[in-house]
Structure formats: C-alpha cells, structure tokens
C-alpha cells in the first residue's frame, strides 16, 4: 500500500481556479441527470470531483499508454456516477480523452452463461460473480484500447440488465482514439481470492441450500485466482469505495433497481408488464444479492489495505474521506 494524501490537502495545494469549476458545473449537472443520479452531487465539484480529476491529470503525465483506473465497490454505491462525472471533467477541463468500461458490460452472452451453468454449476446461470464474464473479450478490449490511434474508432460492448443479455453490436459504446484514461469499474474489480479455509462454511441461505458441497464458491474463487487476476493486473491504480457496513448495500442496490423501474415506466408506460423486461422486486433482489455477498464482505474487510485509492462512504453514499497515493 502506498503512502496516502488527503484529497482536501490536494485541493488546497493546487489552488484550483474557481472559473474552471463554474465552467464545468453545467456539464456535471447534465451528466447527473442523464444517469438519474442525485443532482445535489454537483455541489461536490470543488471538494471531490475536480481535485480528483486534477490528481488523475497529473498521474497520466509520465505515461505513454492509457492510465487504467480500476474502481471497485459494492452494488449501488455510486461507482458509475463517480466515473462518469470525473470523465466529463477530465475531457472538458483537462483535455484528456477519458472513457468508462464497466465490468457489468462484459458479461458472457446469456446463452454462453447458461451453457457454463449446465457444465459447472447451476448458480452460474445468474450473472455477477467471477466466472460469468467474458474475460478473453475483456482482455482483447483493453489491448485494443491501449493502441487505439488518432482517427481510429472501436466499439466496446454494453449489457442490457433488463433483458439479461448483451446488446447487439450496433448499440455498443463508440470509442475514438487515442485514449488517455480508462475508468474500469465493477463491484468486484480488484478482488483477491480467499483461502480455502474461508470457503468451507456457507455464508448465507443461498450457499447453504444450493451450494452444499461448496463447488460453486470454490469455482468462483478459482476464477479470481486465474483469469480475473490477469484482467485486474492490467490496472495501474486500484480504487475502492468503502461502505459503513454490508447491511447498507441492499438499500443502495434496491434504490438503484427502483430507479431503473421508474426509468423503464417512463419509456414504455403501461405496456412494460407485457414486455420481456426484468426488474427485480425487493424480495427477488434479496435472493439475487446473496450471490455477491461472500466477495463483497471479503472486500469490505480487505480493500482498505489493498487499494491504492480509498473512498470512505457513509450510509447515504456520501464520500466522507478520500486517500490518494502521494507519489507514483
């Protein structure tokens, strides 16, 4: 773990111009609206987003390839919002081409996931845990992003959670080169494998009832040790959003699901129930999140020691404290 510097001290040290923050305010407001996020976050420009963007801009200077920032954190903690806001600030305020790649967009196609579930364990039919992502595709994407030149364009997959499947190619994210900064975010980004002793006892009802022999959680852990390690080793800076406890994670994720539900109702209106679009009920969500519980709890206990950058959150997802590497 590197020595760390408080973000508040960084802000003071760099004497950030007020004109830059004011110029970016509208951009940030529009970004938050587009994400259906808390628009009051625009008030964190001066003490969070802009100082962090300044730090990222300084960190990129010695590099000749894109800086890859990996952000892990429990579901619903605000990873996507944070990365989107900082990406916009880097583009508009620092002339850096920053893009976002989400682990959630790199799932195996539904048919491939179901095939893997039949071959290894039925619980792999549910997306989320290591083993349900297309790691060869992810490695190829990052390799291509590293070498994307001016005038070149590539496309990054996107995933439709409401359909539980990858979107068709014509709806993928377009990326123009060259890329300066890549934000790679996902709930288990940076996760490290557990010891065999930690895997012995079931952690919840799902594991007790549907993984009695421990083969599913063992296979998940083996993925962390092998192909996911190759993916996470590409990351230059590991970042982590630390919740106050595991108990708040359900509330965060449920809020996220209800926002998705309202958004889909806005689009489809009264015909939503007739479409093949899935929004989880609160009860269904509780069962779904048990798939994530083991690794999430492990990361809550370990990532403050393992992450290079730490964001400490309160129960309302407010960033209370940020620690950054002093040098690189």
Automatic annotation (TrEMBL):
It comes from Marinomonas fungiae. This is Pantothenate kinase-related protein Tda10 (Topoisomerase I damage affected protein). Keywords: Isomerase, Kinase, Transferase. The keyword Transferase applies. Residues 68-186 form the Phosphoribulokinase/uridine kinase domain. InterPro entries: P-loop_NTPase (IPR027417), PRK/URK (IPR006083). One of its GO terms (molecular function) is kinase activity. It holds the Pfam family PRK. SUPFAM superfamilies: P-loop containing nucleoside triphosphate hydrolases. Signal peptide: none annotated.
